[in-house]
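Bumping with the actual sequence this time:
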Amino acid sequence: MTSSAAPADPLAALGELPGVPEPVASVRKAVDRVYGHRVMRRRSSEVTGEAALRGARASAALDGTDWALEEVRRRSDFGSDPEARTVGAALRATAESGQLLDVWKQSPLRVLARLHLVAAGGAAADDRVGRPRRAGEPVEGSEFGVSLPEAEEVSARLDGLADLVVRGTAAPALVTAAVVHGELVALRPFGSYNGVVARAAERLVLVGSGLDPKSICPAEVGAVEQGADAYAEALRGYASGRPEGVAGWIAFCGRSVELGARESTAVCEALQRGAA
């Protein structure tokens, strides 16, 4: 995604692809419904906290560490083994993303570096943390059947993505969030925790756009609910660059947000009953 041959607002064009306007409209309705719940008037911070916890758990599950929610809630040590480190990475990146919104709009690459630094938490070699990988450096984590781009391509596409974020777009928030998520997972710019970083960045877009300003619709939960195979298939469609593949990925991300909204609606209902 380089800017040299791109139209002035390429993301807006993606928003007009066949099969994209429908999930965009459906997501808006789903988000509005949960924000209209009576619990949100007085206890929105509790819903936000629960959404962050559930989203982080789900982000780790997408990277192969599917712990029960209560296990994540109970644990305090997230550095004892690879699975625990993955969960810890997701928790830290999700929490950190809430502090980086203003920086994201001005310098997305700084934010991505910070998210990786926080996610890695000392688990990777110091000289590889917080910077894009160089030629020949290995990449840990799930591949989802997408071939690994060369470091030079990664650098160019990251610059293009950052430029799109800084310049802004008329595209719906869902489209921007899906592209940020998809690019980062497909590129795997860091040596580790790329999925965790990508999903935290998606969360940033959804919040910063105003679609989900209180961060109560954990798309990660919805992605897990649709299944790891469906996630990988949709991601491969995005990575193919074909219009139908990109539209399918955007629709998948839209359904993920809808299911995340449904999850938080259930949290609101539990709080209303005094069960959470």
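The tokens above came from a reply further down the thread. The CA atoms of residues 57 and 67 lie 7 Å apart.
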